[in-house]
Write a structure and sequence with these properties.
The protein has about 240 residues and is α+β, with helices and mostly antiparallel strands. It has seven helices and six strands.
């Protein structure tokens, strides 16, 4: 019996290794609880890249061989810094896609105005202007690559923001841009609706085609030729007028 216990008894070196691993695991768990998961795994994506957004309006302006793009977007209720991060991210996404000379992104509340004439003052929760090459712009334009501002308060029920207006310094804007993990644009509700309608149209078209095919077969069986009868008067049907 003693011989068997002697065989399965771990050596001192193995005992030290096992004890060290257990101590390290316990220390790591304690450090995670003390420091926090954000420090170890990094902050959440929303804190880095901003939040999701929806397109409201897009304006393209051409001035003296320069192209300016101004985009209006909406976000869910969030804080001012998140609105600025979202606007900076969208500005970078627009530039990567179109390479304009100037990009402006205006952030509105979900209950904010949609008419451009009403988008002014406290209806603007955040505003970002990005000029990739300021030296190439016309006179009268600021030589900074970025300007960013926001209201630090929440929006009211009618979409107007309260709180103090904050203009971010250049170094803080550069830090925010360097922290982005991806540059993603907003969701275009028109494109989503057209995609959903297109899928429904395809399904309906297939059904109508199948139904019409059966009717055509029946007509061919009865008439023997299956050709469509011409319209009365011998004239073709006039195209539908545009409703615009």
């Amino acid at each position: 019996m003693k011989a068997i216990l002697r065989i399965f008894r771990p050596s001192r070196k193995l005992a030290f290794v096992i004890g060290g691993v257990a101590l390290l695991a316990g220390a790591s768990g304690g450090a995670a609880l003390y420091v926090g998961k954000d420090t170890i795994l990094g902050p959440p994506a929303e804190e880095v890249n901003g939040t999701s957004c929806t397109d409201v309006n897009l304006v393209t302006i051409k001035k003296q061989d320069h192209v300016w793009i101004r985009k209006y977007i909406k976000t869910e209720p969030t804080d001012g810094m998140t609105r600025v991060r979202t606007a900076l991210r969208v500005a970078q996404a627009i530039y990567a896609d179109s390479k304009p000379d100037l990009v402006q992104v205006v952030v509105l509340d979900q209950n904010g105005p949609t008419l451009r004439s009403d988008i002014r003052g406290r209806a603007i929760g955040a505003d970002v202007v990005y000029i990739p090459h300021p030296e190439k712009m016309i006179e009268g334009i600021d030589d900074k690559s970025y300007t960013a501002r926001y209201y630090d308060g929440q929006a009211s029920q009618n979409g107007l923001f309260f709180g103090e207006r904050v203009d971010l310094p250049d170094d803080e804007i550069k830090t925010l841009n360097a922290s982005f993990k991806e540059y993603s644009d907003c969701i275009d509700p028109t494109a989503v609706a057209s995609t959903e309608g297109g899928e429904g149209g395809k399904k309906g078209g297939k059904a109508e085609k199948a139904k019409g095919g059966e009717g055509e077969g029946e007509a061919k069986a009865e008439g023997g030729e299956g050709e469509a009868a011409p319209a009365e008067g011998g004239e073709e049907a006039a195209p539908a007028k545009s409703g615009h």
